[in-house]
Amino acid sequence: METPAQCDARNLIERISREHTLNGAIVGTSLSSQLYAKSTHFLLELIQNADDNTYTCTSPILSFSYKPGSLRIDCNEDGFTAENVEAICSINRSTKSGKTSYGEYIGEKGIGFKSVFKIADVVWISSGEFTFKFDKAKCLGMVTPIWADFPEMTRPGWTSMYLQLSKGYEEETLIHELLTFDTNLLIFLKKIEEINIHVIREGEQVWERKTRKTRSLQGEDQLVVLHAGESTFPYLIRTHVIKDLPNERKRPNWPQTKVLLAFPTAEFPAQPRLSPQNVYAFLPIRNYGLKFLVQGDFLLTASREDIESTLPWNARIRDALAEAFLLSIDHFNKGQMKYTWPYFLPSTPTAACSFFDPAVKSILTQLRESRVLESCAGTMVKASSLKHVPLDLFADREGIPFTMNQHTAASYLSLKYPEWVIEATSSIGVTKLSPREFLEDLNSAIAQDPTAFRTRSPTWHSQLGETLIKLATEPELESLILDMCLIPLHDDNWASARGQSMFFSKDENSLEIPSGIEVLILDPTAESDPVRRKLFTSLGVKAWEASEICSLVLKVHQSSNFDPTTLTRDQLISHAVFLYKASWQPPQAADLWFATMQDERCLGGKLYIPWCNETNSAAAKIFTQLQKQFAVIHNDYLKVFPLDPNWPIWLVNNLGLSMVPRLITPHIDPQPQPTQISDMHENAIVDGGFDTNLSGNQNATDVLDDFDFDSFSAEDVTEADFNFFDSNGADMPSSFNTLPAHTDHTAGVGMMQQRRAVPAGQSEYADAIQTGHAALQDGQRRPMMPEQKEKEQQTPSKGMVPPTLMTQARIQQIWLAQKQGGQQATFAQLTQPGTRKAHKPKEPVDIERQCGVILSNGVPCSRSLICKSHSMGAKRAVRGRSAPYDVLLAAYQKKNQTKQQEAVHLPDSKEASEKAASSAPVGDASTIFALSEEFTFIFRECHTSDVLQLLRDNWQHYSQWIDGAHMQWQAPEFRASSSQLRSSLGACLVQSASGVWPLQETVAPMLDPTLEGELIPAVQIKDPLNPQWALLSHFGVSTKVDIHYYLRCLVAISRHSFSDVNNITYIYEQIQTRYRGNEELIRAAFHEKDIVLIQTRPQDFQTTLTWTNMRECISTASKLDDISRFFRNVNAVLKDVNPSQIAQLLTPLQSIPIFPILDSSREQGFDRLLGVGDTSWFIADNPVIRTSFLGNLPLLALPLEEVHEFDDLFRVLWLGRRRLSKIVSVQAHPNGLVTTDWDYTISMRQKSPFIKA
Questions:
Q1: 943: closest CA among 669, 1250, 624, 670?
Q2: Pseudo-torsion of CA 648, 649, 650, 652, nearest 10°?
Q3: CATH code reported for the domain at 1-212
Q4: pTM over 0.90
Q5: Which of 398, 400, 484 is nearest to 442 (CA)?
Q6: Can you give the residue ranges of the SCA7 domain (predicted)?
Q7: Dihedral sign from CA coordinates of 1183, 1184, 1186, 1187
Q8: How confident is the model at residue 313 (pLDDT cuts 50, 70, 90)?
Q9: Contacts (Cβ under 8 Å, ≥6 apart) of 492
Q10: Is the dihedral of CA 841, 843, 848, 854 positive or negative?
Q11: CA–CA gap between residue 49 and residue 192 (Å, rounded)
């Protein structure tokens, strides 16, 4: 039986149900608009309602229990009243709507309850005397209560709700919300102190979580601790009252409100645990990126899922948040959170806009301008003036920065701030101490108080060393460390490593450092620490070892501020001796200072060492001249080890001295052979022609300007075509086995190059040089100690009778006399008497001797030797350059070389490799070395035969820059320099049988005995039959009997004022026999060079001989008969030649004046010569016309009866239009009394019918 209270409760429910008979559509629309969008948001609404209830118990509890299909909520509140029932059954009514305090009520209870219908169809409620349900399926079921029993056992004194979940509802969503429930909301609930959650899932164990909170006071601060199982989460709560609130319809007449900040804390120095920190409006809204919890009376959107950002009310609370945080920092700096509060600094706003961004910016801006952080000096300063010192990098084992002192403490962030706080301080201006700043502070500390630094414990210095070792790996930082006075010395001083020569302390067996080398020695105690020793080593401190001392000696000598004059001669000698005794091999670029013969100072790379004791030898005479101009080592050096032949050789191979004149400057070694190139055969022939410098990129103008006939190169020298003649003129085959092994300087290219040479067989050191020292044979540079080598004896070569030495002035006198084209003086006339035989006059010239030149029809010319058809005009001055001939010559040589390469293909032979290397194009490559001053000097001051003898005797050394198989793998710059070097040597002036000539314009002597003694440019050399003289071909010397040899001889003879016609005829014959295959070359030579000897008869009828060229072979001195014969021969050739060939052949005649012209009315001879290009002259081709125009027009002077014989010539030269018979009209004019010839008239009348018009 019901109690009266139960009866009243039933009556209330039934009355409410009857009253809800108004329009269902209006009610449904209103209810739908008041429900939240998120289905699980009802949980928060139920928590809100529970916290607003009335409790008389000591510990308010709220529980959620889920099982499949239902959710039960239990709360130990005092129970429903009739007013509460009417509120949840109404549409717009709430029991909390009348409160006007600081927000004691969280929300609107009636509307909050109705949110359960987002997931439930039927809801049962049991509270006190009330037990009823809402059935959403009924009409107005969400607001119309139905009295009904609770479906489960109720808990006395508790209010319970049972939700029957809707069919089709995704229950996993509800389960997820329960499992991830934000228990932090307990912090801001006023009454609820415990929330329990139970989840029962099919086939799984029951999951449950119990969260409760406890409150306490910590000084002025309220501390809330959340307990979840065995874990605790303490929070410090800061409350800030907000006044001056804007008007808000939902908060009418509210004078103030509060904002609460909850900071997670932990026992110092432990780091607080940061779980997602939401913003709350009593219930969680969402995470806005803050590192602390915020509770404020924010007005939310209808879905309660975000703050309504447009309301001034919310903006005022947000701005107050910045005020509350700054006030909290001032409070924390006075308490236990002084060194942890930066952990809660909000991050700088990102690109994504957030409602709280203005507050964050305001907090950070104001903190940057406030003195809120403590320095190591204990003062509160701005964050921007502080540096954080990474203790793991820049502090000792006790955590004290190495650079901490009274000068830096005020700028370092206090060490009391835990490491997990440091990162956050960067947002307000604290910067991390960089390695460079650390080193600068350390350097300042050392400079400001060196005593404090030096008196630190060895352990401290060792720990600092570990840090500096790591930093020294960066070049920029290493440079800073080098400037610090970090290194203790044995004399109790300290020094920096910059620019110092420092060594670790030596032991008893160590060598003494030579005199004049200043070094610093470390403190033995400091260097005994392995860490510090490693640091010192990284800073350049060297071990007391011979190799290190040797490197130091070399470093001192190569220093830019080293003054060798400050050292005595004995000190300099001791330096070289120390290096020698240490068995040390210096680097390839090593250059030491030496004392010279005049006790001056000179680098080894420019110094010479005496090498020859044979006073009459070529080398000795050259050295006598050389030492007048270039530095020679002081004799005291050679007295140090007078019996050791290795000593001077070691100086040459390792320190740059030379025993022979240096060939190039600066010194450049050939590159080593690449591994992919196979080894060349040994003892290969020295091959390669003289470089004409006609590179592929030169245009025709460059060639015409730069090339000279006498500079043409000889053909490649091979064993087959290299010929010498004995004194009887017999061909003497060369012995190429006697040539120097060419691979000695190329095989060693793979190692260190032989940089300097020792002359072969010409010194007291010849034993060691030629027999025992591989360093001079294979190009390696290595120390040679006396105990490492054995002496071997070798008989030195006999000296030769020295030729007369010619001075520079004398050579220049001869050369200038020849070049000026005047009276030519022989070498014998300008040198000392007795040096050569006087020129003997030859037999008289037989001018009636047949010319013998082979004509185009194959018949020899029957005219005299000086026939006008094959001779040239009057003697002129010696011509300079012959550009057209040079072009033909270059093309000829290239064509000839190509033919040779096609005929003989030796891909694997060294000859082929060397030829390919010598002829490889270098394009526009720049040069890297040139001919040295020494060689220029000795060519100028010494006799030619001595210089060339020196070059031959040391060819193994010199040839590495001139020719060889190794050229094929050299850089273009090296090959270009080599080509230029050969040209420079070829341009050097030398003595020859016909005077002073450039070497490249000479020939080898005794090639043709017939010409010996003539004024041919035979270079003066000793033992001319020695096959090793083949090397001269590299410099343009003609070394074999070929077309080049005879052309060169002919050119040389043509430059003299007297000549032996018989020998000239002999040269012509030799050229004629070699005509086939050399047509273009010979034609170019005879057209461009004055090498045609002719007889001239001036008006005084005195026959003279003169030189001219083929271009001017028809001259005003020529006879008309000779010219006519020449034209007939040309005309005859043209009959069998096609038009294109004719045009090519006669092109040179277009601009040459070869046609004899009559201006006067004389019957014989001619007045002048004109060319085809001159259109002023004509051809009188019949007697009448000739008689009419003779003396009135320039007419061709050839006999009238011969003119018709030149029809083909006139045709190809387009001269037919000049025939007067074709361009002259003849008109007859009767004179005297006119009478009619009737007989003739009658005859013509009778014939008129037969005459066609």
A1: 624
A2: 90
A3: 3.30.565
A4: no
A5: 484
A6: 838-904
A7: positive
A8: very high
A9: 523
A10: negative
A11: 11
